[in-house]
């Protein structure tokens, strides 16, 4: 069995301002830095050998802080980026027109054709996230990888591992610096492949983490 831990990045300035981030970037707040430290402390004895992060700044910053506690080889994989939110990136939620808000909600509410102009579909996101996850199976035997990614991206990955379509309504809450776990296994009781062990754990955080639905 191969175990993979999944972490969403720490709180960012744009999270607190309820701005749409997508593949644009915003640095961690002091709270986000503290969340990353607490995540590192929690995982300090987890035997992490590889920390593989999205190439966006907020995930790289989170991963670097976690690595201070856990060690491990730091790597980047652009497939772990957040969904491309197209023309809405950088916009405050309160500034969206009704049509723009409908574009955004089409990615969250189960619309198979959902896509923001100049952005990605959930199906495109799911394919690259699954590719990034499957790639960890090429790591040396006994590796314990940690993937650092984003709220929508991780929610889409976990949902599809559960057998939901990529565009299904979002029903998993993944707050900043939450920890999830998936395993690849062969079992007489479960179909061979990836299974979801746990999602969205924030027991290690000493202050409320933002709901990614506000990000």
Question: What would a concise description of this structure say?
Answer:
Keywords: Glycolysis, Isomerase, Membrane, Transmembrane, Transmembrane helix. It contains six helices and six strands; from the N terminus they run E-H-H-E-H-E-H-H-E-H-E-E. The chain has 215 residues and is of the alpha/beta class.
Mind sketching the topology for me?
Layout: E1 2-8, H1 13-16, H2 30-42, E2 50-53, H3 57-70, E3 73-76, H4 98-106, H5 122-135, E4 145-149, H6 151-161, E5 179-185, E6 193-201
Parallel strand pairs: 1-4, 2-3, 2-4
Antiparallel strand pairs: 1-5, 5-6
How does the helix and strand content classify structurally?
alpha/beta
Radius of gyration from the CA trace?
16 Å
Number of strands: 6
Biggest sheet details: 6 strands, mixed
With strands numbered from the N-terminus, the spatial order across the biggest sheet is 3-2-4-1-5-6
Give, in order, the helices and strands.
EHHEHEHHEHEE
Mean pLDDT: 94
Q: CA-to-CA gap between the ends?
A: 34 Å
The fraction of residues assigned to DSSP E strands is 15-25%
Give the oligomeric state of the chains in this entry, treating copies of one chain as homo and distinct chains as hetero.
single chain
Principal-axes shape call: globular
- Low-confidence sequence ranges: none
Helix content: 25-40%
EC number: 5.4.2.11
Protein name: 2,3-diphosphoglycerate-dependent phosphoglycerate mutase GpmB
Enzyme class: isomerase
Keywords: Glycolysis, Isomerase, Membrane, Transmembrane, Transmembrane helix
